[in-house]
Sequence to fold (338 residues):
Amino acid sequence: MPFFAPIVRELENGGHDLFVTTRDCFQVRELAELHQLQHRCVGTHYGANKALKVLGTLWRALQLAPLIARERPDISLSHGSRPLVLLSALLRIPTVYMFDYEFARSLPLVKPTLGIAPDVISDRGLASQFRRGLCGYSGLKEDVYAGSFHPDPSLLDELQLSSSDIIATIRPPAVEAHYHNPESEALFTEVIEFLGRTPGVRMVIVPRNEKREKDAFRRQWPQWCSERRIIIPDRVVGGLNLIWHSDLVVSGGGTMNREAAALRVPVYSIFRGRIGAVDAYLANQGRLTLISRVEEISTTIRPIKRDKSRSVPQENRPLTQIMAGIESVLSAPCSSQS
Fold:
C-alpha cells in the first residue's frame, strides 16, 4: 500500500481516472485506509495449501470480473497479483505487472504486457515472460516512498515506549506464502527468546494474521506480553515510522526488511526461502544481514541503541522510471495485447 500511494497520486495528477482494489488479508485493507486510498475490498487470502491457492486465484478473478468488466479500464496495474493478471488476459486488458522477487510463481500460458522490476532483477533473462519485455528501475520499490517519509514521534507514546528502550521491530515469517520454509519459524522463535532475555529490549511484533498470531504469541510468551517486553500494536501503524524509531528490525519477509534497508536501520532477515536478487544485493552492500541458522542469532544480532539524529536518506528515487513504464503502456494500450 505505501508503494502504490505515490503511484496513485502521479496517475491522478496526470489526469487519469483509476480505481483501487484490495484484499482483506495481511492488513492490506487497514493500510489502504491508513494511507487514505479510496479502494474496493474484494476477496481474501486462501491459506498455504497449494490447491486452495490455485482455487483462490480463480475465485478472486471471478470476484473481480463484474467490477472490471463494468469499468473497462485501459490498463491494469499490480504488484504480484495473479488474479488480476489472469482476468486481464481473459478480458484483453493490457496489464503492467510489477514484482521484486524473481522466484514468485507466474501463471502458465499468461503473459502480462509489461514487467517492471528493480535493476538487479531486470537483467536476469526474465524479459521473455512479458509481451513487451521487462523495464528496470534503480534502487528498491521501498525507495519510491521512503524518500518522502517524515518521522512522527507520537508513536512512542502510543506504544508506551521510552527513549531509553532498545526497540526491536519484528515481523513473523509469511507461513501462508508458497515460498515459505518452516526453518523460518524456528529462527523466529529463537529471535524472540534471545531478545526477550536481553536487558532493556522491547519487542514490537507486527503480526501478519492479526487475530491468530496475536493469540498464539500471548499463549507462548504470556509473561513477556504482560510485562510489555513484547508489544503487539492494537491497530495498524505506519511501517516506516515504526522502523525509523526502532534500533533494529528482524523480519521473515521482504518488504519490512527492505524498508529498514532503505532507511539505513540495522535489519536481519530470517527468510529461508530462495534468496532473491534484491536481498542478495542488499546483503552484499552490508545493508541487510541474512541469518540461516539458529546458532547465528546470538552472535549476529546486535541489540544496541542506534543514532536516530541522522536525517532520512534522500537518494535517487525510482518513481519516475516506474511511471515512464506505466505511461508507455497507457500511450498504446491497444497494441500491447497484440
